[in-house]
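Office hours follow-up: a student asked to see two folded examples consecutively, so here they are.
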Amino acid sequence: MATKNDAGSKTIADNRKARHEFSIEEEFEAGLVLTGTEVKALRAGKANIAESYAAPEAGPAGVELWLINSNIPEYKQGNRENHAPKRSRKLLLHKREVDRLIGAVERKGYTIVPLRLYFNERGIAKLRVGLGKGKALHDKRATAKTRDWNRQKQRLMRDHG
């Protein structure tokens, strides 16, 4: 089942690998275009965004952002109109945010990474996406070293302080 956060939002899926693989510089909240059975499957707490990414594609209203390779399994009580589990889903962002994200991806080599899929306090499915650059192996090691040192400092302060 999905977990409840302190801010009133209910987390469905969390991409824990994203912060290890990428250095996230900016975060955005995006809506999703979903079908009815997808929403029901999300309410059951079943989704996976670990291997997914967001990419721009040309659409009828200009360039749009799409969530690709996310997995929302079929709803068990769904009928023949059930959704495809790995279909691409359109992300809903303001035009200015879309232009900013696409510009960063095309010019500066950034990646749009999904971080967390959740229901907000109004019960609407939202996706938190981050604009990040891929980390090199030495950056990953430095991050792990810093995290371990901070954990060790906390233990020392708790035991001796």
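And the second, which I mentioned at the end of office hours:
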Amino acid sequence: MEVFNAIGRRKAAIARVYLSEGKGNFSINDKKLEEYFPLMQLQYIVKQPFLTLDKIDCYDVKANIDGGGIKGQAEALRLGISRALLKVDAEYRASLKPMGFLTRDPRVVERKKPGQKKARKRFQFSKR
């Protein structure tokens, strides 16, 4: 039984994913999927690559997630799972690529500039 690993990133979140053949169990930071991501929407995001391939009960997922917020962590985990599935079988690419699961979303928070309130917002201008 071989273990396939991959890394997924989104914003400030990093997910290290270990995929092995099993019964569809998820272990995220030593917690169950429902415990770590209580919202159904986030659970769906994590399971999307398996649902697309119709392989939800074929693999066990063990993941370590660090940094970022809860949504960024879920999307980082989705990318990590998709990359690990490619290592299992390269033919999965035809199904995962059009859904956008193999694309690393490059959007991150823009830094705050000095002399301004936020990244783009300025202090109020006074003419007099």
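Two things to take away from it. The chain has one domain: 4-99. Residues 58 and 81 are 13 Å apart (CA to CA).
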